[in-house]
Amino acid sequence: MLLYVQEGAANMWKKNVLEELEVGELEFETVGEFLAEIKKEFGGEEEESVKAAELRKLEQGGKTMEEFVQEFKRAARGSGYEERLLVEEFKREMNGAIRRKLMEAEN
Fold first, then answer.
1. Domain residue ranges of the chain, discontinuous segments joined by +
2. Which pTM value belongs to this model?
């Protein structure tokens, strides 16, 4: 659903920009300016959504804990996840056997 909404918003934005360019209401001096405008309109939220989805798909599997921690840190950066939610996501994605041992140690 989010992708459909974004595609609709992107198409509407494209139509508006093309109309403004045609009538001279909008000008871009460089390709860089144009790309900056696109990022301003669509970059932040989409990037955060992509990072959050990447984070949710992550699994430790057979990786060592250190490998998993480093991969998790990379995926978490820019995901919008913070504090308790980040900890819960980390525990969910951790190798099941390690998670059980930690839970046993807590009791």
1. 1-46, 58-107
2. 0.54
